[in-house]
């Protein structure tokens, strides 16, 4: 099978506090489990949009793992490279929201099945069959095994002439920013497209100016051709190595649950890239997809189809 996109990394279930401003330090109610994991959200959304997709990951031999594999399979993702580890539990995340929109996470990732993803799980032929390999930085912060798997995957993709997209996806709950910069350096040299949140790009490049951050990203990654900046309510920005800069407005909706919106955005932008769209169209499409996710509870509950994204863009007054 030939793929449009393959991704790899953590796949987990997420539990969310029902009330805002109630942190994990006190008893209270959670809702879930919701399917989650940054690269899993991106690949699932790619499949729902109509792309041919595959995923490489590890789950435990438990109900959560079964639920996750079935979710990806039912949405059209090839799950033949998801391994079941009978000695580990499927990864979990617990999320609490504050009134200002900030989040507090507790992860079991470093002690989970996802942490056992290794270079042995990377079949070079499988990776080489994809036009795009998408990597989330968060995967590399889980364990050295997972980090080595990502490095092997991007090396295979580049040697096969494929495109590599990278979301830094900073998780300070997993690693310090100094260590994150070091880790990202092992894959940025293979990266063609950087897909980053604005705050994350500023943090990882150690600057307070977004255009300085973008310039540093191009200097850091010699093969980087496009840097895409996700700016939430301010929309999105894409800058090419040749200096073209395109902005697209956000499609504002009532915010219900923003977790996963950036990963959904990634999928929609990759869709536009694969379809050879102009940057302004790809950004608008990605903004619309992210907006749909923000309006729904559950990190993987983004758009169900390509048509749903286009319909929202039309509803907001944009030609597409």
TrEMBL record:
Domain Carbohydrate kinase PfkB residue range list: 4-301
Chain coiled-coil ranges: none
Keywords from the named record: ATP-binding, Kinase, Nucleotide-binding, Transferase
Sample GO molecular function, one term: kinase activity
Transmembrane domains' residue ranges: none
Family from the record: Belongs to the carbohydrate kinase PfkB family.
PANTHER family, per the entry: HEXOKINASE FAMILY MEMBER, PSEUDOURIDINE KINASE-RELATED
Protein name: Sugar kinase
Organism name: Ignisphaera aggregans
